[in-house]
Amino acid sequence: MFSNKKIIIGVCGSIAAYKSASLVRLLVKAGADVRVILTADAAHFITPLTLSTLSKNPVYTRYYDPESGVWSNHVELALWADLILIAPASANTIAKMATGLCDNFLTAVYLSAKCPVYLAPAMDLDMWKHQSTRDNISRLLSFGNSIIEPNDGELASGLQGQGRMAEPEEIVAYLTSSLNQNLPLSGKKVMVTAGPTFEAIDPVRFIGNHSSGKMGFAIADQLAALGAEVTLITGPTAEKSKKPVRRIDVISAADMLAACTQEFKDSDITVMSAAVADYTPVNIATQKIKKQESEFSVELKKTTDILATLGNVKSAGQILVGFALETEHEEEHAIGKLKKKNLDLIVLNSLNDKGAGFKTDTNKITIFNQQFEKTVFEVKSKVEVAADICKEILKLV
Ligand code: CTP
């Protein structure tokens, strides 16, 4: 997505400047050619050396070096860029940009630029709410600039509220979906679940399963490549996303239920590939259980079926895709789950099929739609299987 994209990252004086290191790293890793501009105050929070090392390019901090007289051409740099991202954008720089002040290199580059400009503001909650900031933001929006809204949370002042700069991963996801506007899933919010859940027995033990998360991660990557804004809710796994995906880590089925319920409200497409535990211990021992008797049993209770819960509250227009892992009467069980959980598609994996199931790099699936029409696929790599699943989803969009 960012391959060969020329990106200027402007960093302003804010404690959130430390996050710009991760931001530069993520964009460089995604293939972008990144040049960083630091304002004088930003250089108190993060050093040019850090950012030049990560961006693999010199960092701009001023118009010219008074000792050598070397001058940086703000117009040339502005016209070079495909995209300018100001992160963190301080209230001060936002005010300068809104009013055309250009008393530093960053604002001069901004005024000279013709490419899309994105700002990820960071400031205290009252500064963010202040009418002058509101007016400045409205002006920047009217210029066609994009604002990546700050998050709610604890601020450097110790106060709670909106003002925390969006996380680097969220910023990259925003840029991705913005650049992806012509892709088939651009503007769509997607939620994917992946991996196993771990149900604690005591502080050191749990009940889990063999799910690696590979299938869910491949689906999330594929949907992101199609332009969707993807949130991946994953149980414990060593897998990593290859595309910009917002990741929420959870441990237990109850954690996954909470995260899914929260995210589902905004989700246009939901793909539930996690291997969620069906049972969880009734009690979790607070101390490590000592071995005593020759036999030991753990009393279990049913977890909430997350997929069925979402199917119950699904509204028209939301697409819900479930999985069924079966060992016998596969098709009958899969269709049963499709109906019972109010799904749009169900992806059947049979553990009887060679190359299907946990921890393999391949899978073999059959997909049923709401009309119970079935599409049978060959054994393929999980990345190819993810592409097949996404093609079926695209038919419904
Ligand atoms: N699922 C879920 N919450 C659970 C259990 C399962 O959301 N507590 C979801 C899985 O993510 C999958 C689908 O339900 O998309 C089917 O999971 P599967 O284990 O095949 O079936 P179950 O419905 O749990 O039924 P059973 O184990 O009896 O086959």
Describe the structure.
With 397 residues, the protein is of the alpha/beta class. The chain has 14 helices and 21 strands. The strands form 6 sheets. Strands 12-11-8-13-16-17-19-20 form an 8-stranded mixed beta sheet, with helices on both faces. Helix 4 (74-80) crosses helix 6 (105-112). The protein is elongated. Cytidine-5'-triphosphate binds next to helix 12 and strand 16.
Number of domains: 2
Bound molecules: cytidine-5'-triphosphate
Mean pLDDT across all amino acids? 94
Please indicate the percent range of residues in DSSP E strands (runs of 2 or more). 15-25%
Query: What's the CATH architecture name of the largest domain?
Result: 3-Layer(aba) Sandwich
Brief rundown of the structure:
By secondary structure, this protein is an alpha/beta fold. The chain has 14 helices and 21 strands.
